[in-house]
Amino acid sequence: MNDMSRTEAEGAPVASEDLARALAAAEAELDALRTELEETNRGVLALYAELDAQAEHLRQATELKSRFLAYMSHEFRTPIGAIQSIARILQDRVDGPLTEEQEKQVRFIQTTSAEFAEMVNDLLDLAKVEAGRIEVSPDWFEMVDVFSALRGMFKPVVFNPDVTLIFEEPVDVPKLFSDDRKLAQILRNFISNALKFTLRGEIRVSARRFSEESVQFAVADTGIGIAPEFHGAIFQDYSQIDSPIQKRLRGTGLGLSLSKRLAELLGGDVSVESKPQKGSTFYVTIPIRVTPTAADPRTLS
Fold it and tell me: 3-state DSSP helix/strand/coil percent for the chain, to nearest 5?
């Protein structure tokens, strides 16, 4: 055997040993990775189990809250109705004439009870929306009829002589196939909100064709306006703007949030444009014809 052959023969065992060590190290590393992966998987499974448990607790809490809101709303309606009935009897002078001061106090009772009733209705509707129990009942209707009903509804409650409520003629708005009661509720919330925060000037309600398939409604006021940093928050539950006027007014902060959810049920959305001391314009845009996929399937009867 020559020198080269002996060198190759001696080197072969060394190379085999190196390869064996490398394989052993790789297997050890693979075992370590496998063990780590198994531990990670167990951790992920435990995390998923915890998330599922938390989700179930959250679902139960939400359901309990919705039940509580619905129950309390129903319970509040009876005394509110009694207060409103007594106020109407006094206003009609059934038991005799009222002094000027008494008439002022009765009007205050009527206004306060109406605000309270509005809060209760908002709470009940919000509970229904969260529980998926709001029914969407679409039908064909004309916007002039909705505006006429709103005009009659707000005529007795616009007490401020410095504020004018104007309903413009709808512009190029066809018949709509949607839920007119829910649309009217959205606009009613917008108008009520505008009346609270407009001390003088006007509130203008309008409708126009927004696209081939949608219509946009606007409620514009000359009120105190809203700073840009609050625009995203005002449509959230229980959200209220921090201002001196806001602090003097009662409210749950649910009207705009409820309006947003109702608009979504109709396949639309809401938005706002506003500047402090320049007034606000609230918009709701809905399709001309609501479709079953536009609303939450749970809400359709």
Answer: 60, 15, 25
